Amino acid sequence: AKAAYPVSAEVAFYYGTFLLRQQEYTEAYAELRRAVRTDRTLLPLAISRTWRSGEDVNELLNQMLPPDAYAYFQALDFFASIHQAEPGLTVWKRLLSLGQPIVLSRTFPFFEELIHEDRGDDARRMWREAVVAASAPGQEPRGHSLIWNGDFVADFANGGLAWRWVPYPGVSIEFDTQPAPNGSRAVRLDFNGGSNVSLGAPLQYVPVDPGRGYHFHAYMRTREITTESGMRFSIADPNHPRVPGVLTENFTGSREWAAVEADINTSPDPHFLLVRLLRNPSRLFDNKLSGTVWIADVSLVPSTAEVERTSQ
Known about the structure:
Layout: H1 9-21, H2 25-38, H3 43-54, H4 57-64, H5 69-81, H6 85-97, H7 108-116, H8 120-133, E1 171-176, E2 186-192, E3 203-207, E4 213-225, E5 232-236, E6 246-247, E7 253-265, E8 272-278, E9 290-302, H9 303-311
């Protein structure tokens, strides 16, 4: 086949995988590199075969992968799929060294793995690097807060360590144009009364330190929220469900802007907290939810920083 069709990416790929099985690695990497440079659709398989032949990420990067962002993101996706964050972080470091702009959403699958593996420090560092590389504005936390985009100046990124929203039947969401506390932009949710909705968003995963206290603060406003089960915030550990979380005050009916606050202490295990707007279904199934809620100026501050801020 090589003699008959020497420029074929498919032939180079199959010959390269044959050479891997023969442990002729130098020649194998050269064939696979030739294949993926000609046909990028072969990258996922080539990455998988190369990794499984020796599980050496530096060999993968130095010998087989083309040095470009597309190929490196394919490798990041692969390591996320096999739950191997450590080699993925090596790929990320090499990707940054290219100095090329990135699309922030392409990092999201790998962030899911960092969250799953409870790698809070790595996620915090990589997120800052990703936001800079993607030139994403309006994201940096204010003051001592750990919440990204807590004033909702930027739109939801829907992944990574940014705010996320998933559609719910009977719920519409938008950014409100009316003034909100502390110069924040407000998020407005309208409920059409069609369902007894179970709500768990907007939400954000926040890297935290184990064995430390944190103070949560936000503003909430409601108009004609029906049923006994209203709107509140939940702060909990997403990876250790036995660790107690906290719930803020239940807002029902109509209320003007009011501060909602809570304190939470992390156990020796947690490395993330999940902050989300929560509404549990009413105990009466036919109690359909209608009304409007606004949220603004969300922050999560280490307790020592909160004490310093208050004293100042």
